[in-house]
Structures are given as structure tokens and as C-alpha cells.
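sry for the spam today, last one i promise. C-alpha cells for design, 464 residues
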């Protein structure tokens, strides 16, 4: 009997998705590389030098049969240039060690040479691969089956052929359109954000337009249009404004937290049962969050790692506030909603303060967020060990301990990297996302259920 009770107690942990288990269950992990590569120029545009570019700048003319050169950071103040060239019928690779000073001189030489070339000669397409993968994945996983539903298609042949052609176009269109177009890493990240969040925003826009006259097929159509439209709009906006990866991440975090605040606000004013007002609140909150972080970005420079630290602090604030309300055993939805809003805003204010005069690398920012996640799990593990099987206060124990663990993990990782985050961020692409609005879904999931589009709670996109 005791073993049975222990098993039931363990299974009870699974009902707390906001405590972390679902975070890994829904991770979308994309690994694009397995090497730490750095650019050849000061502007960070040239990741490799191929035959065409070398013919114009003449950097490696001493290598007959030159194919490609790449620059890697192999340790602190240690670099290696890997040169690929053809000798007779063999492909050879030569690695030449460089010091920091030598790399700086090399970059100065490359940057000066690039300025003498026509603008169209050097295209920054660092984000093109991510953009094309995002478009293809969206077509395969969503557009392909959503479009036949939205168009009321009947017949297996029509539906299957539409899926196949849509999936194919998801690759061909962006591949052709971006072939001779600059696609920065920031623009690629903006396209990814717009694709995923646009599907949700489009779905909610349907409720704003039709109110209670809900139609599943129309909602799916709005969702597809929102995904495509927002992806293109954010991509173009980031390209035209020459956004950095840090600013794109910051704007995305602001929009996500704005969405969460917009989701919680109706519960404070008793209009959570109105689909139209609920939708308006979430979309308005998203726009307000985007605008607020855009304004914030003008007060200081945000690296991609800074944006991760900022977002992690907001998540920590929101989660801790909800845990405090749960500890007080409140059943009032308004209290939970108010706590989420206050906790989120307080956490974001703290996050902005923590990155002042700091330049966290993407890796450092990701480690801080992962430290927070590890702290949540540590708190859950401790709570499970010390729980009283006969107690009815498991909710409070688990939420409190996981919140304390999350704060401890975040603080420990922040203190580990804060003193090192004083230089410009290196080119490492760790990209960890937590969608804070979903922390509230487990408590406020009774209203608007038909019009909430299913989204992952976290994603991890790693380049190392």
C-alpha cells in the first residue's frame, strides 16, 4: 500500500506543467552547427571566404586551388584559420594559428577591402538558412493541412495534393526570393518569431473580428494568414531598420509578455467571457509590449544575451508572484491575474537593471535561463523528498520550492557571468525561449478555450 501511495504521489507531480516538465516535453531543438565560428570582418558579415570573394580581395592567392577559408575561435585569445584547397586531385585542409592581435589586423584588412567593392558583391545572408528552414517547417507542419481545412476542401486527392504543393512551395518561394537578397541573422530570427506568434495572433484576430460567431475553418484561415503576414512584416521591418539580433529578441520578449498581460487583464475587469474583448486585450497587450521594448532599446544597447537575461527575469517575476498567491491559498482569479501582471512587470524592470552596462553573450544569457530552469527542477525534487504523504498542501509546497529554486538558479548563473559580460558579445547562437503567458494558463484556462491556439511553452535553438 505504501508503494502504491508513493507512486500516486509521484504521478501527482505531472499535473503541474508550469513547474517545468512540459518545458522539455515541448522543446523544439534546432542544431544548425557544431563549431564555434567567428567572422573575418569587424562588421560581422563575412563568415567564410570562398573562391569568388577571394578573387576580389586577394587574401589567399598564395594557395593554388583555393576553395574556402573559415575563422574559428578555439580558446581564450586563440584562433585558427582553416583553409580548404585542392592540390592535384586531392582536397586538403590547412590550419593556421592566429593570436587576437593578428585576427584584429586581419579583420581590419578584410573590412577595408570590402569597402572598395560594390555593395551587391557582399551579401549578408547569415539568417537565410534559418528563414528557409522556418518556412519549410511551417509549410510541412501547419500550412499544408490548415489551408485545405480553411478552404473547405473535400476529397482525399484534393487535400493530399494541396498539402504536397504547399509544403514544396514553403521551400521554393523563400529560396528563390532570398537568393540575391541580404538576410541578416536578426532578420532570420524575426521571420521565425513572426511565423510562430503570427499563427497565434491571427487565430485570436478572428475572435476580435467575429466575436461569438466562431468558425473553426475561418479561424484556421486567419491563423495561416497571420503567420505568413507577420513573418514577412517583421522580417522586412528588421531588415529595413537594420535591427541587431539583440533588438529582435528584446522586441519578441516584450510582445510575449505583453500578450501574457493582455491575457490576464480581462480577469481583473470581469470581461473574460467576451471573446471579442478578450481578443482585443491580448492583441493590444502584444502591441504595447512590442512598443515598450522598442522604446527601451533606445536607452541602451541590448545584445542577444542581454535580451535572454531580461526575459528570464520577467519569467522569474511572473512565476514567483503566482507561487506566492498559491501559497496564500487564494482561489480568486483576479488575485492570480493581478499577481501575474505585477510579477511580470517587476521582473522585467529588474531584468533591464541587471543588463545595464553589460554585454552578455547569447551563450551566457542561455546558461542563466537554463540555470533558472534547473533551479525549478531542483526545488521540485526537494519538495518531493520532504513532502508529507498525508498533507493536502502539496500545491503550495511544490510551487514555493520550485520558485525558490528558480530564483536561486537564476541568481547563481547571473553572478557567475556578470563580471565577464563587459565586452561586446561574441558570435555564438544560443536561443532559448520561454513563453511567459503560458505560466498563467494552468490557473486561468476556463474561459476563451475555443480561441486559444496551442503554443509550446519553451523552445531551444542552439548553434555551437
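last one done:
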Amino acid at each position: 500500500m505504501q508503494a502504491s501511495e508513493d507512486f500516486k504521489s509521484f504521478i501527482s507531480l505531472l499535473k503541474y506543467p508550469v513547474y517545468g516538465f512540459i518545458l522539455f516535453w515541448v522543446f523544439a531543438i534546432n542544431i544548425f552547427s557544431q563549431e564555434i565560428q567567428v567572422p573575418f570582418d569587424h562588421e560581422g558579415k563575412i563568415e567564410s571566404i570562398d573562391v569568388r570573394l577571394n578573387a576580389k580581395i586577394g587574401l589567399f592567392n598564395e594557395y593554388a586551388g583555393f576553395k574556402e577559408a573559415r575563422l574559428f575561435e578555439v580558446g581564450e585569445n586563440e584562433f585558427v584559420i582553416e583553409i580548404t584547397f585542392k592540390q592535384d586531385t586531392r582536397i586538403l585542409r590547412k590550419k593556421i594559428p592566429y593570436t587576437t592581435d593578428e585576427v584584429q589586423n586581419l579583420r581590419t584588412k578584410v573590412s577595408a577591402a570590402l569597402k572598395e567593392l560594390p555593395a551587391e558583391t557582399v551579401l549578408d545572408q547569415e539568417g537565410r538558412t534559418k528563414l528557409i528552414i522556418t518556412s519549410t517547417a511551417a509549410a510541412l507542419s501547419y500550412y499544408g493541412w490548415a489551408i485545405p481545412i480553411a478552404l473547405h476542401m473535400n476529397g482525399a486527392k484534393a487535400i493530399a495534393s494541396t498539402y504536397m504543393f504547399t509544403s514544396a512551395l514553403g521551400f521554393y518561394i523563400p529560396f528563390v526570393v532570398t537568393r540575391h537578397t541580404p538576410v541578416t541573422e536578426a532578420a532570420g530570427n524575426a521571420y521565425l518569431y513572426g511565423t510562430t506568434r503570427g499563427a497565434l495572433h491571427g487565430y485570436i484576430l478572428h475572435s476580435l473580428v467575429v466575436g461569438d460567431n466562431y468558425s473553426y475553418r475561418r479561424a484556421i484561415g486567419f491563423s495561416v494568414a497571420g503567420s505568413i503576414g507577420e513573418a514577412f512584416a517583421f522580417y522586412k521591418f528588421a531588415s529595413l531598420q537594420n535591427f541587431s539580433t539583440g533588438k529582435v529578441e528584446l522586441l519578441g520578449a516584450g510582445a510575449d509578455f505583453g500578450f501574457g498581460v493582455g491575457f490576464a487583464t480581462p480577469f481583473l475587469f470581469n470581461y473574460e467571457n467576451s471573446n471579442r474583448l478578450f481578443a482585443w486585450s491580448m492583441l493590444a497587450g502584444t502591441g504595447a509590449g512590442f512598443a515598450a521594448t522598442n522604446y527601451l532599446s533606445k536607452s541602451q544597447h541590448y545584445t542577444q544575451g542581454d535580451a535572454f537575461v531580461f526575459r528570464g527575469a520577467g519569467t522569474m517575476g511572473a512565476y514567483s508572484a503566482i507561487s506566492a498567491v498559491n501559497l496564500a491559498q487564494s482561489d480568486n482569479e483576479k488575485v492570480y491575474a493581478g499577481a501575474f501582471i505585477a510579477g511580470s512587470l517587476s521582473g522585467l524592470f529588474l531584468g533591464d537593471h541587471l543588463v545595464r552596462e553589460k554585454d552578455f553573450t547569447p551563450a551566457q544569457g542561455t546558461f542563466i535561463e537554463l540555470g533558472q530552469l534547473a533551479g525549478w527542477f531542483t526545488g521540485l525534487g526537494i519538495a518531493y523528498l520532504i513532502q508529507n504523504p498525508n498533507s493536502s498542501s502539496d500545491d503550495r509546497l511544490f510551487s514555493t520550492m520550485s520558485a525558490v529554486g528558480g530564483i536561486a538558479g537564476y541568481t547563481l548563473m547571473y553572478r557567475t557571468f556578470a563580471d565577464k559580460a563587459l565586452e561586446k558579445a561574441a558570435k555564438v547562437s544560443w536561443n532559448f525561449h520561454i513563453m511567459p503567458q503560458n505560466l498563467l494558463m494552468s490557473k486561468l484556462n476556463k474561459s476563451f478555450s475555443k480561441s486559444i491556439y496551442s503554443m509550446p511553452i519553451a523552445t531551444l535553438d542552439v548553434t555551437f
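The chain is about 60% helix and 10% strand. ok im logging off now
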